[in-house]
């Protein structure tokens, strides 16, 4: 029993740390793939059903060690009472018929029997407690952790199976036909857009050329009017 408590105290703490590290790494994996909502459920189950119960075993082991100390104390007390009774019997073997030695002998026997009964009762209770404690550890480790992982991977298998069925049912030839049609339509629209854009540019250039020609004609007309006015002015000066 003492070996069970010692092993539990020695190995449960690093095992709990290992599972906590596993949960943290699983949480990091969840953060890298937020689309997997079931990864969040897995992390929460691990924290609530595996890591948290194992953390509580620190106090439980301390309590079991205290129970073990009380059991050992009862055993030592019973052993001392038995040794005292044996010494008392060996001390006055010829006076056992006398009243006072007999009274002491009877009291020692009562004390020894009482101490022995207490030791047996403590030992039996401690054995049951350690057995339950050991069973609970195995259940927490075996049932909860494995169940959580099985639930997650079963759901992951369900998702991947559904994805595989969708991919398997895909008609590749039809998909390529649709893709080709989209490419052709995109090419036609692109051609129409380029043709329309080219026509607009041509019309815009024609309008700009017409405006430019009208502007040049107006400038030439203004220059002609100025030239006529200058000639008329010179003629008037010559007459005067």
Automatic annotation (TrEMBL):
Keywords tagged on the record: Coiled coil
Coiled coil (residue ranges): 61-88
Pfam families in the cross-refs: FAM92
Listed InterPro entries: CBAR/FAM92 (IPR009602)
GO biological process: cilium assembly
Domain of life: Eukaryota
GO cellular component: ciliary basal body; ciliary transition zone
Protein name: Family with sequence similarity 92 member A1
Organism of provenance: Hucho hucho (huchen)
């Amino acid at each position: 029993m003492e070996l069970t408590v010692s092993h539990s105290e020695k190995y449960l703490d690093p095992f709990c740390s290992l599972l906590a590290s596993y949960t943290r790494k699983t949480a990091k994996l969840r953060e890298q793939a937020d689309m997997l909502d079931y990864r969040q459920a897995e992390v929460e189950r691990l924290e609530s059903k595996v890591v948290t119960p194992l953390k509580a075993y620190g106090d439980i082991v301390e309590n079991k060690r205290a129970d073990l100390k009380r059991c050992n104390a009862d055993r030592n007390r019973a052993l001392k009472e038995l040794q005292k009774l044996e010494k008392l019997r060996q001390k006055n073997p010829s006076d056992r018929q006398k009243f006072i030695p007999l009274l002491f002998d009877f009291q020692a026997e009562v004390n020894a029997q009482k101490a022995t009964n207490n030791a047996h009762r403590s030992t039996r209770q401690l054995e049951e407690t350690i057995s339950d404690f050991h069973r609970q550890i195995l259940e927490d480790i075996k049932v909860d952790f494995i169940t959580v992982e099985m639930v997650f991977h079963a759901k992951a298998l369900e998702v991947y199976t559904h994805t595989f069925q969708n991919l398997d049912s895909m008609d590749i030839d039809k998909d390529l036909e649709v893709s080709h049609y989209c490419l052709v339509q995109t090419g036609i629209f692109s051609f129409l857009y380029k043709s329309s854009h080219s026509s607009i540019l041509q019309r815009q250039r024609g309008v700009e050329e017409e405006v430019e020609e009208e502007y040049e004609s107006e400038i030439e007309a203004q220059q002609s009017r100025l030239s006529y006015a200058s000639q008329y002015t010179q003629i008037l000066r010559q007459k005067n």
